[in-house]
Amino acid sequence: MANITKKVSWSSRADESGATGEGTPLLNGSEQPRHSRQLSEGRSIFQIGRLSTVDLEEEITSDEDSLRGRPKEIPHNEKLLSLKYESLDYDNIENQLFLEEERRMSHMGFRCLEISRWVVCGLIGFLTGLIACFIDIVVEELAGIKYQVVKENIEKFTEVGGLSISLILWAVFNSAFVMVGAIIVAYFEPIAAGSGIPQIKCYLNGVKIPRVVRLKTLLVKVGGVICSVVGGLAVGKEGPMIHSGAVVAAGVSQGRSTSLKRDFKIFEYFRRDTEKRDFVSAGAAAGVSAAFGAPVGGVLFSLEEGASFWNQMLTWRIFFASMISTFTLNFFLSIYHNKPGDLSNPGLINFGRFETESVAYNLYEIPLFIAMGAIGGLLGALFNVLNYWLTIFRIRYVHRPCLQVMEAMLVAAVTATVSFTMIYFSNDCQPLGPEHTEEYPLQLFCADGEYNSMATAFFNTPERSVRSLFHNQPGTYNPLTLGLFTLTYFFLACWTYGLAVSAGVFIPSLLIGAAWGRLFGILLASITTTGSTWAVPGKYALMGAAAQLGGIVRMTLSLTVIMVEATGNISYGLPIMLVLMTSKIVGDYFVEGLYDIHIKLQSVPFLHWEAPATSHWLTAREVMSSPVTCLNRIEKVGTIVDILSNTSTNHNGFPVVVQVAGNDEPAKLCGLILRSQLIVLLKHKVFVELARSRLTHRKLQLKDFRDAYPRFPPIQSIHVSQDERECMMDLMEFMNATPYTVPQETSLPRVFKLFRALGLRHLVVVDDENRVVGLVTRKDLARYHLGKHGLEELQLAQT
To answer: Which of 133, 231, 300, 757 could disulfide-pair with 558, CB 3.0 to 4.6 Å?
Structure first.
């Protein structure tokens, strides 16, 4: 049947040569999918377009070569799905070895496992809190030195003239720090760029993003965050904490470090994707908790953004990790501030206390909050659209590490220049109060005893600026100051997100929102006669911050709880929820959330919660990949090696079939085996002949598979002699004898639900006789999505 054999067609090298134009040509000449109806074997079947593969980069083995061998401009199209991403096996491989081990384990064994899960979660929380503490202290110290030097310099030159020297000093400081941060990211670990939240979302969704939870990534991430925040970029250190927590979790739970080649021989049972993914969701939650002092928000973040498979005990353990993380950070920061035992610093960002009496809200203010939510949604959509086009420009033109470092340094210098110019031309002078909270008040051209309020916004770490916008007395900021600050910071933050530095978008969004929210409050107070009593600017600054952040990242449940926990005032729950809902609804009308946009731009096969709404008329037969490479239960070693070595069909799962004796019917399905398992079998030479000849031959155990996880050797590194190729291999013991299967008439939403809820990697499609007709993988399902013109099918690309 013509429409079943629609596997990827691999484009040849010759096609690739002409592919450096500005547009985004599909390189083997395929058009966009057309809806065509085709008759075959007397039955009519829908066929949506045709699949093709686009080679966007040359397949070069080493990382260094891939940097040198890239074209000057990389064509890009988000209507592609990349084939380089594999799925994680969230489903346990229930082969005979696994079942025997589980049956041998006593009730006490299972109890010990449960206890060790709690221990791991406690360790994850503790280490994540320590990392947050380290980042916070280093940033405080370095930023303090930088601002003190620049402040003294400015004060010196304000009197004698020559402030341009101060500007150059500031810009050089910023560029130097950012250069270090950008070099370690661009040259040593590019995956550590950005906040890391899109990557962790993908990992928890079940996509194996290469190098995302390595120790090297963590080190680069922490160093990069410190450099970019001290370098004065419009960034926060909160987003990267989530990634750092996830890396810590992935490392601790495995009881060894593959990077350091050290195996501590503990937690060996957890060396598989199922367990590791649960711990990574705990690490992400601990990261949120350390960043915002919001343990419940952390749990809800993992639930909302990540884990596809969820149970009650997992929730409880994740909450435990989050609580430990907040407590650790709190405890060590209290020692650092010379107040041991005073646990008043629950998170890296502290919004300060909103006392209920001073900032209560009235019923008639709720429509105003909703209107602010709508404004936040519009501004967030604008931010995302601008960042989307900027990212496409970066993918096409700024893909060499040296260019990425230069761009980051340029942004740092521009940020310093813009900040300095704004402070220089601002004449918004405010008196220094007796209990002045300004950390680095700049006098500049103000009278004695006064300070420049624009400097409070710019000449500070972003966290401090947010706090001053929330809590400073009414009248501290001039409306013009706030308006100009919002405008400049909006574009700076948009330009900064996506640079080759480790940095989050949470704090810049809160800062932009707090600035225009405070402006909104001041304008309300000036318009209405009684406004000055109820329109407290700090309250509107909080709502503006929530609206702006919701408009950019589109998180709802977890963000509401994070904001409520960070402000320490539950009475704001309803307004914050309404603001976030409105900003999400308004923003979604125009464009997706920032993290979703970046996931799409990386062509990741991301599966949402539900199948596309109009996909009921598609069946498993139309979405599956076929023909399928099957293996016999007792297969010749040479055949297995040839199949695994075939680079054009880089399959990872192989249905195992058995021939019915004395019958010439097609073979029937009896199990499923993975590439990684076959590689371990070949490495240990588990051949039928050798097992017969050597009586002492050690039986392969699950431990051998766990020791090879997660970096299984490539097939090229395994030597199989000519004699060994003639041997046979019995897959009976190692294959999963009960794989999930669906009939070929199953509708797409049903296939999708089964695949997504169980976290599968392969789903075998069988006919009435239990014969294999196809295989459904993540890419087959992620291809279909709702576009502007109904159901669309993405192309598959070898990027």
So the answer is: 300
Before 627, cis peptide (omega within 30)?
yes
Topology of domain 363-401+416-592 in CATH is Clc chloride channel (1.10.3080)
pLDDT in tens, 181-237: 999 999 998 888 888 888 988 888 888 888 888 888 999 999 999 999 888 888 888
State whether residue 382 is helix, strand or coil: helix
Q: What is the rounded CA–CA span in Å between residue 102 and residue 104?
A: 5
What is the CB neighbour count within 10 angstroms for residue 261? 7
Region of 21 on the Ramachandran plot (φ > 0 left; ψ -120 to 50 alpha; else beta)? beta
| Cα-Cα-Cα-Cα dihedral sign, residues 641, 643, 647, 651 | negative
Asked if domains 46-85+617-797 and 120-336 share a fold, the reply is: no
- Kindly list the domain boundaries of the chain, sorted by start residue: 46-85+617-797, 120-336, 363-401+416-592
As a whole number of angstroms, the distance between CA 639 and CA 720 comes to 12
Cα-based distances in Å from 340 to 327, 350, 463, 745: 13, 18, 23, 66
- Integer angstrom CA distances of residue 705 from 96, 98, 234, 659, 711: 13, 11, 46, 28, 11
CB-based contacts of 694: which residues, under 8 Å, 6+ apart?
A: none
Tokens of 569: 């005032």
Q: What is the pTM of this model?
A: 0.85
| Distance (Å) of CA 703 to CA 659, 735, 738 | 31, 16, 21
Whether the link from the prior residue into 710 is cis, omega within 30° of 0, is yes
DSSP state of 774: E
Q: pLDDT of 241-288, one tens digit each?
A: 999 999 999 988 888 777 777 777 788 888 888 888 889 999 999 998
Pick the CATH number of 46-85+617-797 from 3.30.470.20, 3.10.580.10, 3.40.190.80, 3.40.30.10: 3.10.580.10
Q: How far apart are the first and last CA of the chain?
A: 30
Q: Is 779 a residue whose pLDDT tops 50?
A: yes
Phi, psi of 786 (to 5 degrees): -80, 120
How far are the Cα atoms of 668, 743, 756, 780 from residue 767, in angstroms, in the given order? 10, 6, 22, 19
Q: Which amino acid is at 65?
A: D
87 and 758 in contact (C-beta within 8 Å)?
Answer: no
**Both tokens assigned to 633:** 């239960």
CATH class, domain 120-336, is mainly alpha
DSSP string, 99-115: HHHHHH--HHHHHHHHH
